[in-house]
Amino acid sequence: MTYPNPHRMSGPIRRTVALPLAVLAALGVSFAAATPAAAEDAPVGYVRLAHLSPDTPKVDVYVSKLGDSSFKEQIFRHVGYGVMSNYLAVPVGTYGIAMRLEGQAPSVPPTLSTQATVEAGGAYTVAGVGKHAVIGLKVFVDDLTRPPADKSKVRVIQASVGAPILDVGLANGEPIATAVTFSSTTDYQVVEPGLWTLQLKPNGSSDVTTLSANLDGGSVYSLLVLDGPNGLRLQLRADARGGETAPDGGVATGAGGTFSTVNPLAMVGVGLVVVMGLLAIALRMRRMASRRS
Question: What is the pTM of this model?
Fold first, then answer.
């Protein structure tokens, strides 16, 4: 296809063909503004929330950035025992986390509150832990560094009141962690991927609960030990899967325009439609001018 040469035309037709080129250049600037390079100017960390108090009713959780009114407060409603949110991608800074009983008005003083300082690239789990009478908020620092593709990385978060001190081992009796206390977490361990059969035993007891968990290579997991209706139960959370730079399920907060919600591919599509439309108009005007001359 032969396109008109703007340098060989004059008057309004020349300006009409030049317009798509200007639009394309402007779109190129827009693409650059929407690329991940812009995110480097606003480093983020990752925060998630967990309810790990078995005898505490559901709560509503509020997350706000201290000293920053432009941050849109995030609210998680109806959070019950054993629930853990996805990670929120938030700008670095210090955040206030408040828990209110389910359905309470935001004006009601929170049942619990704490602060968490988010560093660039850091990941944190803020959990309500302990029995209801003495419940508190604890901040766990998460290590989302991926293991090699042929390994898995896992830790245990102990959230069982029924077995407040717990030994965790393999089916063959090999110990993984001993005397893990309620509302604590073990260090991460690099292990072989695959189906793991674990034995959970209250410290000093002969009662054993056998449960299974499947671990993929190159991924990071938190294994929650929870109280269930018939004893202990496991909840496996994939914190970070191989090949990604962000946590598994991480989402942006959309805080005050800090995070772009524009899809660059969609912008390319729109830009091409605009350019092709303007070229078609220019060609049509050129033909009309040729007929007049």
Answer: 0.68
Phi, psi angles (nearest 5°) of residue 61: -115, 130
The DSSP bridge partners found for residue 210 are 199
Q: Which is nearest to 127 in space by CA: 99, 154, 93, 100? A: 99
pLDDT band, residue 73 (cuts 50/70/90): very high
What average pLDDT does the segment 180-186 reach?
Answer: 90
142-151, 169-178, 265-274, range with the lowest pLDDT: 265-274
Q: What is the DSSP string of 125-189?
A: EEEEES-GGG-EEEEEEE--PPPPTT-EEEEEEEE-SSSSEEEEEETTS-EEEEEEETTEEPPPE
Q: What are phi and psi of 105, to 5 degrees?
A: -70, 150
Half-sphere exposure of 288 (CA within 13 A, CB side): 8
Q: Is 267 a residue whose pLDDT tops 80?
A: no
End-to-end Cα separation, the chain, in angstroms: 24
Dihedrals phi, psi of 21, to nearest 5 degrees: -65, -40
pLDDT interval class at 176 (50, 70, 90): confident
Nearest Cα residue to 63 out of 43, 87, 42: 87
